[in-house]
Records
---
Amino acid sequence: MKINNMVDAKRKIGIVGSGSWATAMVKMLGDNVLDKEILWWIRKEEDLTYVKTYNHNPSYLSAVELRVAPENLYLDARSVIQKSDIVILNTPSAYLKDALRDVSAEDFQGKIVVTAIKGIIPDENLIVGEYLTKIYAIPLTQIVVIGGPCHAEEVSAEKLSYLTIAGKDATNAEKVAEVLRNRYINTIISKDVYGVEYGAVLKNIYALAGGICHGLGFGDNFLAVLVSNAIREMSKCVMAIDPEADRDINASAYLGDLLVTAYSQFSRNRTFGHMIGKGYTVQSAQLEMNMVAEGYYASACIQNIIQRYALDMPICNMVYQILYNRQPANEAVKQLAQKLT
C-alpha cells in the first residue's frame, strides 16, 4: 500500500486519545514549526467543549495551552482517522478497542499509523502493533512505535526530552519524527519495533514493582538492585520475542525509559505500586488514581509471553502474584530478594 506523499502537501496529523500523554503530544505537535493541521479525538463531550472554548484540556495537564483549530476537534475517532495522513493512537490500551469500535480496515488504508500506547490489549494479549496488523490488516511497514523516556508532565513544562521513533520503514519513522521534533523534543530513529514496544510494556511492570518495594519501606539501595535485574530480565524477554533485531538494551528506549518510570515522581505505575505496597487493594488504588497504570493490565498479559517462551522472569512473576493472586506484598518481595543478584 502506497503511503500518502506528505513532502509538499500540508500534513494532517490525527490524535486519538485525550489523556495526559495525548494532551502532551498535541502540545508537541503545536510547537513544531512545520506546516501541518492537527485533528484531535476527545472522548468526553464536556472536555471537547472546554478545549474549543479555552484551548486547555480541563481533565489533564490543564495549564497547557493547546493549538488546535476548533473545527478540528471531534467526538468521532473515525473522522479523525479518515482525514489524517498520520494517525497517532494514544489511549490507554484497555480503551483502544472501544475508541476504534466504528473504525474499519479501509479507514486506515494509506495512513502511517503510530502507536504511543505503552501497554498490551487486554483479552487479546497482543501489543498494539500486533493488534493493528491482526484486526485491521495494517502492514507492519505502515506502523510506527513511539518510545520514551518521556513523561507528559515534563513535556508540558517544555523540559528537554527524547523520543525513540521505531519503524520497519525508516522513511515513515522519519516522517513521524519530523512532525514531533521541536525545540524541546529530540528524536531517535530505530528499526526495533517489537523491542521498543515490548520494552515499554515491561518497564511499567518493573516500575510497579519498584513502587511496591518503596511502599513496603525498602530504600534506594534495594531499588537499584531491582532495576539492574529488571533490565536484564527485559533483555531476556525481548531477545526471545525478536532475536534478530539490532538493539542495545542500554539505549534510551529500554534502560532510559525503565529508569525514568521506576524513579520519577510522575510515574503513575510507580505510584500505583507504592499504594499496593502501603496496603491498598487493587480496587481502592485504581479508584484513587485519575489515570490508568498500564502495568496492572500488562502484568496479566505478559504471563502468556513468559509461558510461551518458557522464560524465567521473577520480577514480573512477583508483581502478578501480588496483583492477581493476592499474595501478601511483603512475603512476595522477600521471596524475590533471594533471587536478585
---
Amino acid sequence: MKVTTVGIDLAKNLFQLHGVNEFGKPVIKKQIRRDQMAEFFVNLPACLIGMEACGSAHHWARKLQSFGHTVKLMAPQFVKPYVKTNKNDAADAEAICEAVNRPNMRFVPIKNVEQQSVLALHRVRQGFVKARTAQANQIRGLLSEFGLIIPQGIGYIENRVPELIENASNELPGSFRILVQRLLDHLKELDRQVDDLESQIVKWHRQSEASSKLAQVPGIGPITASALVASLGDAKNFEGGRQVAAWLGLVPKQHSSGGKQNLLSISKRGDTYLRTLLIHGARSVIYRAQQKPDACSWINGVVNRRNKNVAAVALANKNARIVWALLVHDREFRSDYMAAKAAL
C-alpha cells in the first residue's frame, strides 16, 4: 500500500522511521543506518516527510527534496504534545508523523547551503566574541589579585596591561608577567579572528541585494542584516510582520483567562542572537535620537512615556516588522513612507 506520510526521528547514526498510508494506518516501522537513508528514500514514491528542526535536519531536508519528496521541518516543542507514551525513538517518529499532518502546524523554513554557511560565520564569530570577553575578564581578575585594577573594556586592557608588565616598580613576579603576556597575546589573536570573520560577513552583505536593503533601516547594520536574511530565508513563509516579531520573541507573553487580558514581559522565544542584535541596534538609535529630538519624534515619544529598555524593545519589534515588509514586497526603506502615504 502506498506510503503518504513518513516521520523521521533524526540521530547521529540510527534513524527511526514511521510511515502511514492515506488512511493513517502504519505501514513502515523500522530503524535504518545513516548510510541507508539515501538508498531507502530514493526508491520510495514521493510522499510527505516530517522531521524535527535539529542537527543535520536542513541537510537531510535538501537531500530528500532532491529525491522528489515534500519535506517539512517542525520545532521540537511543537512535536512533543503528540508523543503518546514514554519517550523513545519509535514514539518520537510516530509523533513527528502525526504532527506533520496537522493543518495548523507551524513549520521551519528549510535553509539552503549559502544561508547555512553565512549563519556558520555568525555563530563562530559569536563564539570568538564570548571567548574574547572571558579572556579579558580573566586578565582583569588575575591582576586584581595583585592590587592592579583595570577598568572594564577591552581597550583598557590593550592599553594598560603592557605598561603594567613592563613596570618594574610593582610586585609582579617574573613568571606572572610572562603568564599575563601570554594571555594578552591570546586576547589579541581572538580579536584578530573576530575582525577577520566580521570582514567576511560584511563582504557577503555587500554582495547580497536583500541584506544591503535591510541595512538602510536605522538600527540595522551589516551584521544584523546578513543574519536576518540568512535566518528568515523566504519571508513569505511568515503571515505578517507581527509573526516575525513573535518568532524573534519580541512580543509580550500572555497569561489571560476569563476574558481578562494580562500581558507580561516579552516572551524571549526564538533566536536569541537575532533578538540581541535588533535590541542593541535599537539602543544606538535611541542614543542618537536624544541628540535630534525633532528628527525622531516617534522613538522619543516612547522614551518619554516609558523607560529606555522598553523603548529599545519596541523599536526592535518595529524594525522586525519593517524587515518583513521590505523582503516580502521588495521595497526600499523610506523614512518618510508613512508621511507620503498619509498625503495620498
---
Amino acid sequence: MNDLSMDFVAEPDQTLLIVDDDKPFLQRIARAMETRGFAVEVAESISDGLTRVQARPPAYAVVDMRLGDGNGLDVIGMLREKRPDAKAVILTGYGNIATAVTAVKLGAIDYLSKPADADDIIRALRQDPTDRATPPENPMSADRVRWEHIQRVYELCERNVSETARRLNMHRRTLQRILAKRAPR
C-alpha cells in the first residue's frame, strides 16, 4: 500500500495581500508579485484590507501607510493578531522615523518608501530577521533630524497640531507650515 502522505510535499504558503489606494501602482505590483509565484489579493481601502485579513489572514502583506479611510497600521495590527507568523511590509510616500518605529512595533518587518518595485518588496518580505542594516553612507542632515523629531511628536500626539505645537513650544502656524512641506534631505 502506497502512503500518499510521504509523497506529498506541502508548498509554502505564498498568499499575499496588497493594500493600496493608488490603483495603477496596486495593479502593477499585484501583477509583478503574481509572476513571482504569489497568490495575490488586493484591497483598495483599510476597511477592505481588514475584511480580507479577518476572512483569510495571508502569509505576507504589503500595506500602504496612508489611505483615504485610515491608517495602514490598523491592517498590520489585525494581521499580527490573526496570524503572528505573517510577514508585512509598510509602503509610504510620507516616510518618517516615528511611523517606521510604530510599524515595526505592530509587527511590520520592514518599511519602504514609495516608489518601491517588486524586487524591493520581495527582498524585504524574505529577508532574514537577523540581518543588520549597514550604516548609511550619507547620514541625515540636521534639518532632516529636526523634521523627523517634529514628525515623531506629531504622531505621538495623534496628529493633533495644537497639542504638538504646545509640546514643542512652537507656534501652531509655524508647525503647520513645517508639516505641509516635504521632508528635507
